[in-house]
Amino acid sequence: MRHLVLRTLFAALALLTSAFVGAAEIGKIHREVFLAAPKPGVAVLAATYATRPSGGELLSLHQLMSRSDTVDIAFMRHSSDGGRTWSAAVEIPTLEHRPGGKLRRALRGGVADPRTGRFVRFHIEGLLPNDDPLEGMRQWYVCYSASPDGGRTWPASGRVIQDGPEFTEQHPLPGVWIGKNCVMVGDLASVPVFLRDGTLLVPVIITPLGPAGTYHNPGGGYTYSDAAALRGRWREDGRISWELSGLIQADPARSTRGMDEPTFAELPDGTVLAVLRGSNHTKPHLPARRWISRSADGGRTWSAPEPWTYDDGEAFFSPSSCSQLVPHSSGRLFWIGNISPKNPDGNRPRYPLVIGEVDVRSGRLLRATVGPVDDRGPEDSEMMSLSNFSAREDRADGAIVINLSRLFQRSKPGELDWTSDAYLYRVPVK
Q1: Element (H or E) spanning 63, and its range?
Q2: Domains of the chain: which residue ranges?
Q3: What region, left, alpha or beta, does residue 83 occupy, with left being phi > 0 and alpha being psi -120 to 50 degrees?
Q4: Helices (H), 121-234
Q5: What phi and psi, each to the nearest 5 degrees, are found at residue 164?
Q6: Is residue 51 a contact partner of residue 57, using CB atoms and an 8 Å limit?
Q7: By C-alpha distance, which of 62, 37, 53, 9 is closest to 395?
Q8: ∠ CA 233-388-416 to the nearest 5 degrees?
Q9: Are strands 400-407 and 90-92 parallel, antiparallel or unpaired?
Q10: 308-358: per-residue pLDDT in tens?
Q11: Class of domain 15-427
Q12: What is the spatial distance between Cα 112 and Cα 52, in angstroms, rounded to a whole number?
């Protein structure tokens, strides 16, 4: 009984906080199960994307996982009524046995072009000789599929390869040689965006090459990467021409895993803002920050990254986890991610998950608007991760819709339990 009372009290407090932090901006948050875990030991990671510039057509992508950075199986569904009903799920192959190893795939985000009406989505794949996720740091490459009919058919698809005779499947981009280093879209929250001039920007990370010409980890963390943008323009045949931007590079003495999982938004003055994941993994004395970079030329070149701050100039603590900038039809810009009350240690803790508004003039996070989406409860494991999400605006009512899995909430010390439903959160925006 005492445990039940505590759970009830915590839930009530969470709802009250959500309702009254920035009360003029954000209403009470509703949470429901979007897709249930099919069996113990399996997590469902889901995301939904609008497949046309207007209207209620959606694409749902969900993946089943039972170990880190590996997709067991993936599915796609369609909705024509804003997500009230869904079509039967269609399997997307994520594993092929090949000579030399296993070809693994993982789904990433998509976006509809407001000019042409086409929808484009992305995935990463790579041949892993020993089926070790860390081999992906040398093997991952990016693929895309474009649809003219809201994701019903995909007549244009293939690898992302920069224009020019020197670029090939093994050498798809400047500085990238598959087998030596890699390029990838980092997470579901790394959603591509179309700029007002029609340019498509895809947030990617690239593992650097060292003096020996192979993947190099100068920070000493679990992995290391530089961030960049893939700049795309439509061709007459419905395919996309690609160009890699300049790199967003960290000082490895300040972020041990470099710059990771960027998220982009175009500000009213044409500046492109990038918010990035850093890390203090292996060096917990370093302040764990969220980082920003800016581009004044449509994502071609980027400023040196610096710690992101509130509007009063104070930097905040944030674990190494994904985040997302979410533009709103009102002209406002929201950010969703993890903010910690004290300095994290690498990836943890990945709670609470918060939402706040970004000042579109300065690019800073408005402190007074930041409030919780979800947090660890007394019954949840300390290992719980409120990350691995994707968000969008609901066109019917303007709410922010978040697909999030409460990973490892049932874990015990020294044992990760992957069992997790995929939840849907609705954040009313006033």
Answers
A1: strand 58-65
A2: 15-427
A3: left
A4: 136-139
A5: 130, 145
A6: yes
A7: 53
A8: 145
A9: unpaired
A10: 999 999 999 999 999 999 999 999 999 999 999 999 999 999 999 999 999
A11: mainly beta
A12: 5
Query: Under 8 Å CB-to-CB from 165, ≥6 apart: which residues?
Result: none
Closest by Cα among 49, 130, 48, 143 to 94: 143
User: In this structure, what token pair is assigned to residue 311?
Assistant: 């509007």
Asked if residue 101 lies in contact with residue 127, where contact means CB atoms within 8 angstroms, the answer is yes
Closest CA to 386 of 414, 357, 422, 416: 422
| Cα dihedral value 17, 20, 26, 29, nearest 10 | 40
Which pLDDT belongs to residue 303?
A: 98
Distance CA 110, CA 78 (A): 13
Q: Are 354 and 339 in contact (CB under 8 A)?
A: yes
Structure tokens at 169: 């499947």
pLDDT score at 362: 97
At 414 the pLDDT is 86
Q: Is the peptide bond before 352 cis (omega within 30 degrees of 0)?
A: yes
Please give the C-alpha separations between residue 356 and each of 298, 339, 389, 400, in angstroms, as whole numbers. 25, 11, 16, 11
Helix (H) or strand (E) holding 264: strand 260-266
Q: How confident is the model at residue 107, as a pLDDT?
A: 97
pLDDT given at position 27: 77
Beta strands, E only, 271-321: 272-277, 290-295, 306-307
Tokens (6 digits) for 398: 């303007």
Pairing of strands 73-79, 90-92: antiparallel
DSSP for 324-387, written as a single string: EEEE-TTS-EEEEEE-BSS--BTTB-B--EEEEEE-TTT--B-GGG-EEEE---TTS-TT-EEE
Q: What is the DSSP string of 391-417?
A: EEE-TTT--EEEEEEEETTT-BTTB--
Amino acid type, 85: T
Q: Counting every residue, how long is the chain?
A: 430
Helix, strand, coil percent values for the chain (each to nearest 5): 5, 45, 50
Are the beta carbons of 11 and 30 closer than 8 angstroms?
A: no
pLDDT at residue 11, as a whole number: 41
| Lookup: tokens for 424 | 């849907």
- Distance separating the N- and C-terminal Cα atoms of the chain: 37
CA–CA gap between residue 239 and residue 158 (Å, rounded): 9
Integer Cα distance of 143 and 128 in angstroms: 17
In the chain, which residues have pLDDT < 50? 1-24
Residues 6+ apart with CB under 8 A from 72: 42, 63, 64, 65, 66, 94, 95
Query: Token match 């990760």: residue?
Result: 416
